[in-house]
Amino acid sequence: MAELLEDDEVERRIPNGWEYDGDEIIRTYEFDDYLTAAQFVSDVAEIAEEEFHHPEITLRYDEVEVRFTTHDAGGVTEKDVRLADYCDGEY
Predict the structure, then answer these.
(1) Alpha carbon distance 21, 24 (integer Å)
(2) 25 and 80 in contact (C-beta within 8 Å)?
């Protein structure tokens, strides 16, 4: 099982633009149109499947909200922070 990060470590390590809320990290990305937002979702879903670590993703017309947590650890782990970095690289 992945090791849970302490609150202060999560705050220190999450990428800019992400928020730490309870047991998850969250970011909303803005796009020019629906197709660009949907492509971003597809790109994130592909790496999530490879990593077998699936975020909650909400797709709207011109924005995408991504939420990461590690359920079996009960909060944020290194894997969540690493995949948040990946999302930023795709954006």
Answers:
(1) 6
(2) yes
Q: Which amino acid is at 83?
A: L
Tell me the fold of 7-90: Gyrase A; domain 2 (3.30.1360)
In the chain, where the domains are located: 7-90
Tens place of pLDDT per residue across the chain (91 aa): 689 999 999 999 999 999 999 999 999 999 999 999 999 999 999 999 999 999 999 999 999 999 999 999 999 999 999 999 999 998 8
Q: For residues 74 and 23, give the distance between their C-alpha atoms in angstroms, rounded to a whole number.
A: 7
Tokens linked to 82: 């690493």
Name the DSSP class of 17: T
- CA atoms lying within 13 Å on the CB side of residue 33: 2
Q: What is the pTM of this model?
A: 0.94
Span between the terminal Cα atoms of the chain, in Å: 29
For residues 9 and 60, the answer to whether their CB atoms sit within 8 Å is no
